[in-house]
Amino acid sequence: MPPLPSGRFWRAVLLQSYSARLLAGHREASNGRGCRLYPHAGAEELRGELDRFGGVSVRLAQRGALDHLDAASFQRGLQAAVQQWRSEGRIAVWLHIPILQSRFIAPAASLGFCFHHAESDSSTLTLWLGEGPSRLPGYATHQVGVAGAVFDENTRKVLVVQDRNKLKNMWKFPGGLSEPGEDIGDTAVREVLEETGIKSEFRSLLSIRQQHTNPGAFGKSDMYIICRLKPHSFAINFCQHECLRCEWMDLNDLVKTENTTPITSRVARLLLYGYREGFDKIDFTMEELPAVYTGLFYKLYHKELPDNYRTMTGTD
Ligand SMILES: NC(=O)C1=CN([C@@H]2O[C@H](COP(=O)(O)OP(=O)(O)OC[C@H]3O[C@@H](n4cnc5c(N)ncnc54)[C@H](O)[C@@H]3O)[C@@H](O)[C@H]2O)C=CC1
Ligand SMILES: [Mg+2]
């Protein structure tokens, strides 16, 4: 074995393979204390960083040092590293594995690592090292679907579709799954356009349904949000892949029909109430506000109130 670095460097790691040896190191990272795996003989460097909770995050390289490392050597090296992290009081290890290095998943799992999540090109495994049960947060728990109730106040008609791939042909509002980073209102407007060809504008949020272990959500929970939209065009050109039928239906007819889903029926009644009594009675409107994180903004949805609520300081 070659001489090991001393001082702040760790004393022992070792991933040994035909051509690569990796040495786990310890150093001051630019943003605080960090951990680092140092390769030998030109193999690519692997880094780990400490997070603010006392966990260590290791990102395996997409290519390079690990290409020639076999699973057994990786497992020995990881085991030594875990022992070191444990002795240093680290509370957890986050191991990010690019999809092309997936052969290291099984050896990590045999050391107690579990999947935390996977994206299209990588998976993230975790190992809890702290006391008691793991306090690491889970990954995404819900999918978000958004529908648009496009209501034309002039004709009292609302836009409805029937899905093509359903066992029962029920009327519902056009909608679909939100994309990462997409605002709720933008999803509603986009899905309505894609499914029906109708252009529209976001007005308010009407209802949120939360349903668990949804079969269409890969066993996760489903948030189904219905927005009120105002139409900007009226000529229907619906998506043949997703929809069987699409039409402008009188709101009274949608309220009365049995050929609809319970939630569509309920929201149709909500719309009718808003139409009669004023939409301010049913609308959750949106306001964009600056987040505590510099440069970021968020959308806040709540019932519209008289302006003086913004400056109220107490109950008097
Ligand atoms: N109660 C209601 O009125 C209904 C509410 N929803 C809600 O709408 C949201 C999802 O909307 P969607 O219109 O379903 O999403 P979407 O508009 O994003 O469309 C999903 C597309 O993926 C396709 N697809 C789904 N699973 C597939 C698979 N395994 N293989 C191949 N293609 C597949 C579908 O045919 C469809 O074309 C959810 O939040 C759900 O709860 C959906 C249907 C009815
Ligand atoms: Mg859809």
TrEMBL record:
GO terms for cellular component: mitochondrion; nucleus. GO terms for molecular function: ADP-ribose diphosphatase activity; NAD binding; NADH pyrophosphatase activity. Keywords: Cytoplasm, Hydrolase, Mitochondrion, Nucleus. It is found in: Cytoplasm; Nucleus; Mitochondrion. Signal peptide: none annotated. Pfam families: NUDIX, Nudix_hydro. It is an enzyme of class 3 (hydrolase). PROSITE patterns: NUDIX, NUDIX_BOX. Its EC number is 3.6.1.-. Its main location: cytoplasm. InterPro entries: Nudix_hydrolase, NUDIX_hydrolase-like_dom_sf, Nudix_hydrolase6-like, NUDIX_hydrolase_CS, NUDIX_hydrolase_dom, Pre-Nudix. Residues 141-273 form the Nudix hydrolase domain. It comes from the Eukaryota. The keyword Disulfide bond does not apply. Monomer and homodimer. PANTHER family: NUCLEOSIDE DIPHOSPHATE-LINKED MOIETY X MOTIF 6 (PTHR13994:SF46), NUDIX HYDROLASE RELATED (PTHR13994). May contribute to the regulation of cell proliferation. Belongs to the Nudix hydrolase family. This is Nucleoside diphosphate-linked moiety X motif 6. It comes from Ailuropoda melanoleuca (Giant panda).
